[in-house]
Amino acid sequence: MRGLTQRIEVTLDTLLESVNLAEQITVRVAEIVGFDEEQRYRIGMSVREAVINAYEYGNAQDRARRIYLVFELLAAELVIHVRDQGPGFRLEDVPDPLAEENLLKTSGRGLFLIRAFMDQLRVIFAPAGGAEVIMTKRLPLPHSPAAAGASEG
Amino acid sequence: MNLRATNRDIGDTTVVDVSGRITLGEGSALMRTLVRQLLDQKRKFIVLNLADVSYIDSSGIGELVSSFTAVKKEGGELKLLNLTKKVHDLLLITKLFTVFDVHNDEEKAIASFSR
């Protein structure tokens, strides 16, 4: 049914294994929604990078904290939220990894990859605390059998 | 698939055939150990054959950069060989194609070192 939002919520432990798990879940969701292999890879990579950020920086590898992964299937787009329980950050404060002085840095490319692979990226200070990375991907074929099947209630 | 690597010494060059995923955790750590071990053995002309690397994330990219600078610091060179499309595209969008010396032919890669 078009226009009906479907929502999946996953709570992840702050563990290295959660990074792979989040990617695998995402690729499966993207497949059900009807994205092709290339887009599934890109969406999976984007969630992977957001969860790496949450694991390493937001939650600082603190096992007592959680990572919240939410998929929202809207009429025309898939919206994915990754929230941590850290101090939060502003996207504009993240250094540009393409700047000459940052090219040989060994980290700091995750959010850049999300921006490259998704249609939209936002980072907010979540009302419940922590950083919330919100990424959006337009649905591939709104009336394809896979997408239509996934949006039926 | 976990990361695996096999070394082949060709003259003073070591070709490392890498397969699997270079990602946060085990994959990146193995890459780091491997390159540091080669440097300890004074093997500082290194070709990473990435033909069978199916996936790399930002942590893996960071490890490639770290290896590149570590080898350079020792007066050597690290070159990349046979990139898959995914790895090729990632290096392109992160502008690292301008940093790494990338080859599609092993003999040419080996011959390209400025010894």
Structure description:
The complex is a heterodimer of chains A (153) and B (115). With 153 residues, chain A is an alpha+beta fold. Helix content of chain A is 35%, strand content 24%. Chain A is built from 4 helices and 5 strands. Chain A has helices at residues 16-33, 37-58, 110-117, 145-150; strands spanning 6-13, 66-73, 77-83, 120-125, 131-138. In chain A, strand 2 (66-73) and strand 3 form a beta hairpin. In chain A, helix 1 packs antiparallel against helix 2 and helix 2 runs antiparallel to helix 3. The relative contact order of chain A is 0.21. Chain B is an alpha/beta fold and 115 residues long. Chain B has a single domain (4-110), classed as 2-Layer Sandwich (Transcription Regulator spoIIAA), CATH 3.30.750. Chain B has helices at residues 26-40, 58-73, 85-93, 106-111; strands spanning 4-10, 13-22, 45-56, 77-81, 101-103. A 5-stranded mixed β-sheet of chain B has the order 1-2-3-4-5, sandwiched between helices. Chain B starts with a strand and ends with a helix. The model of chain B has no long low-confidence stretch (mean pLDDT 95).
Overview features:
heterodimer, A: 153 residues, five-stranded antiparallel beta sheet, disordered C terminus, B: 115 residues, alpha/beta, Transcription Regulator spoIIAA, 5 strands, 32% strand
Poorly predicted parts of chain B = none
CATH fold description of chain A: Heat Shock Protein 90
What share of residues of chain A is helical? Answer: 25-40%
The average pLDDT score of chain B comes to 95
CATH superfamily of chain A: Histidine kinase-like ATPase, C-terminal domain
Secondary structural class of chain A:
alpha+beta
Helix content of chain B: 40-55%
Quantity of strands of chain B, as a count: 5
What is the element string of chain A, with H for helices and E for strands? EHHEEHEEH
User: Termini separation of chain B (Å)?
Assistant: 36 Å
- Domain unit count of chain B: 1
Which fold name is given in CATH as the topology of chain B?
Transcription Regulator spoIIAA
